[in-house]
Structure formats: structure tokens, C-alpha cells
Amino acid sequence: MPPPPSFFPTEETVDENFGHAITEVRTDVGWVGPSQTFHVIVLITPDEGWHTYWKNPGASGAPTEVSLHVPEGFTVGDPMYPRPNVFSSPEGQTYGYDKPAAIFIPVTAPEFLSDGRAKITATTSWLACKKICVIGEETKELLFSTHINAQGPLNKDMQLSRWSQSLPRPVTDLEDGEIVVSGNTLSISGRTTKRPIFFIGIENQLVRFEQTERAIIHENTFRIQIPVLIDASKQGNETAIVEGLLLLGRGETDPSYSIRTEVQPGTRAK
């Protein structure tokens, strides 16, 4: 006889997402050819009412991180995170995502490939928060085709186009965009009709940011100044990397720009 029905969930039927987010993995090309640079795209989707964090979480939280295990000869670049939302918390402002966020990781194939299939393993770790915070981690495998001599075409689906719009652009794409480090101040200038104008710094062992001054705006030209502290006692002969994100407007697809410059030892500008 079949077992009587049960109104209590068994171990097999429990489907609770303890990390309160899920991931999906895909590429942006039809196949991969020799020396081709393509992107592995990790889509992280938090549960309703929960949020995950940007690579700089802000006043609290922890960064979302992706680690790729690639075939021999493939190389992995730095992940590109979409524009984050700004959240308010008792500790201060935090930066992250309460909707699906697509992280693009550039990968370059070796010079020589054969026809066949290859595999990349993506492990994503995150902190998801609502009233409490939980740690999540998920590993996904991505199979893709390789070609001995032809590079693959770029996919042009609407999903990929929408995700790409949320990625930061190089500051050279900003009209009259300019970055200058002078003394202990990072100055960013350009032209835009978007408001507000906001900067998020990414601190490291050598570089700290103090509170950003209000943007000076004349017609559509702006200049925003950010006090920067470079620890000369730790710098030695090392180049200090000053980087962050310039956000224009409030919308998720409003433009954002990657800010990155170098400060050589004994100087304050480059």
C-alpha cells in the first residue's frame, strides 16, 4: 500500500534557499575561438525583500565575489559589477542590489584551440541581508563550444543588452570627462544633464577617502572633489591606485563611470 499522505515536509520536499539568493551563469558569445576575449556572466538574484552587495559594500555588509576555474591556457580579468543601488542603514550608506545583478568577467582564450567543448566553473559568494544577514555560496558549471580557427559571434539578445546598459563606462566616454589627483584631492569633471552626481570610492591598503564635497555645477558642467588620504608610510615604492565609481542620476540604467588613476611614490598626481 502507498504511504499515507503527510502534511509535514520531508527532507526531500524542503526547498528553502538558505542563502536567500540564486545564481545563473552564461557567456556573451556563440562559441569561443583562438585568442578571443569573451565574458562569463554571473547573474545573482536575491530573494524578494533581500539585497546583496557591490564590490564595495559601504558602511556594512560584505562584497559579492566570483571565482572562476578555467581550462589550461585561459586567463581571467577583473570582474565588472553593474551600477549598485544606495541603501540607508543605521551604520550609514551601503551599496548593492535588491534586484537581479549581472557581473561580467572577461576571459581570454589561448592562441591555440581545438574544435570541441570546454568547461568553466564559477563559484559565487555573497552576503544577503533583510532584517538579518546570511552568507551564501553557489557553484555553477558552464559548458561552451570551442573552434579551432574562428572566433565566435557576440550574442545580441535583449537580456544581454539590458545587463550591459548597467555596467560602468570608461570615464573617457563622459563628455569632457577628466580625472586629476592634486595634493590630497581627487577631482572629477565633465558635462551632464543628470542629477544628482555621486561618487563611491573603493578603498585599499594605501588609499582612504574622506567625505565627498558637494558637486560644483555651472549649467551642465560639473566638478566634484573628493579628499584622498594616501598612506606614504606604507606606500614605499608601490604605485597607489585611486579608484571608484561616478554615478549620474538615480535610475538603475542611468550612466555610471569607472574612475581609476595612479599616484606614484613621492608624487600626488598622475
Name the helicity range: under 10%
What is the third-level CATH name, the topology of the largest domain? Immunoglobulin-like
What Rg, in angstroms, do the CA atoms define?
22 Å
Question: Could you state the CATH homologous superfamily of the largest domain?
Answer: Thiol:disulfide interchange protein DsbD, N-terminal domain
Order of helices and strands: EEEEEEEEEEHEEEEEEEHEE
Integer count of domains: 2
Q: Could you give the distance between the termini?
A: 80 Å
For the sheet with most strands, the description reads: 5 strands, antiparallel
Q: Could you tell me the strand content as a percent range? A: over 45%
Low-confidence stretches: 1-14
- What structural category do the secondary elements indicate? mainly beta
Q: Count of helical segments? A: 2
Number of strands: 19
- Broad CATH class of the largest domain: Mainly Beta
Question: What is the residue-averaged pLDDT?
Answer: 91
The best one-word shape is globular
CATH architectural group of the largest domain:
Sandwich
